[in-house]
Specification:
mainly alpha, MetI-like fold, membrane, 2 strands, about 300 residues, about 75% helix, Sugar ABC transporter permease
Length: about 300
């Protein structure tokens, strides 16, 4: 009986295939583990720390930090400088986005037209893309020199009789915000131009030929053929530009530093000053969390729009 029971229980499947199957399933996670570790260390951990700092007081500079609740958020949201930064950021973003779209679409359509030859298009393409090749530091230095009261811009305007004396474009409270906005427009439109040019080249010519047969003019073809075909590209670019422009820091800091009189203060420069000028890391963390929430809302709409495509 014992031998019979032993023979009956013998054919048990080994666990080796199951172990191999589990090992194969874990292989992709092994390849992803370095990236996951970097994301956790460089992104998740800092975000959690900043969020925790925003609910405490006397952080970093002192050992005895205390829980402050929403006091830091209340302090930030009632700060006149923060409200001015929101206003300046809204103007900066809106004007830049509209100008990027208009200039990018205009130059893209010019480079896509059949009225220009190949060599002419190549030359214009190089000229138009130049601003995108410079780093923010180079762009800031160039435009600080150009907009200096004794710079080239003032010299040209004075030569043609538009101004009587040199204008301090980056130092005048009434002109500084528009000056840095112009610089941002100049440095950012090539990205729109390239993306919209790719979209224009992807529109089937049959649509234009069919519209021409129907007797439409160029504006009607632009309105009813070009714009609807470019709509997904325009929406994606607008949301991305909104996110990137809202986080612009280097250009503002290297041209005006948020001045004069906070007329060019942005959310990014306000947060930086709170942390590294005032050493108010708690309020800086609260401001950073607010900016993070706004950025996440914009990112949500971008991802949603990409899924709809």
């Amino acid at each position: 009986m014992t031998m019979l029971a032993t023979k009956t229980a013998a054919p048990v499947e080994p666990a080796a295939p199951k172990r191999k199957s589990l090992a194969r399933r874990l292989v992709p996670y092994g390849y992803l583990s370095p990236t996951i570790v970097l994301i956790v260390v460089l992104m998740v951990v800092p975000i959690v720390m900043v969020i925790s700092y925003s609910f405490r007081d006397n952080v970093i500079v002192q050992d005895n930090s205390v829980f402050a609740g929403f006091a830091n958020y209340t302090k930030v949201l009632t700060d006149p400088d923060f409200l001015a930064a929101i206003k300046n950021t809204a103007i900066f973003i809106t004007v830049s986005m509209v100008a990027h779209l208009v200039l990018g679409l205009a130059f893209a359509m010019m480079l896509n037209t059949e009225l220009l030859g190949g060599v002419t298009k190549a030359i214009f393409r190089i000229v138009y893309i130049l601003p995108w090749l410079f780093t923010i530091a180079v762009i800031a230095v160039i435009w600080r020199l150009l907009l200096d009261p004794a710079g080239v811009i003032n010299y040209v305007l004075h030569s043609i009789g538009l101004i009587n004396e040199g204008v301090n474009w980056l130092g005048d409270p009434g002109k500084a915000l528009w000056a840095v906005t112009f610089i941002n427009i100049w440095s950012g439109y090539p990205f729109f131009m390239i993306s919209l040019l790719a979209g224009l080249q992807g529109i089937p010519k049959d649509l234009y030929e069919a519209a021409a047969v129907d007797g439409t003019n160029w504006f009607q073809r632009f309105r009813h053929v070009t714009l609807p075909q470019l709509r997904p590209v325009i929406i994606s670019m607008a949301v991305l530009d909104l996110i990137w422009t809202s986080q612009q820091f280097a250009l503002i800091w290297m041209t005006t530093g948020g001045g004069p009189l906070n007329t060019t203060e942005m959310l990014s420069t306000y947060t930086y000053k709170q942390a590294f000028s005032e050493y108010e890391f708690s309020t800086a963390s609260a401001a950073a969390v607010i900016v993070l929430l706004l950025t996440m809302i914009l990112a949500f709409f971008y991802v949603r729009q990409q899924r709809e495509r």
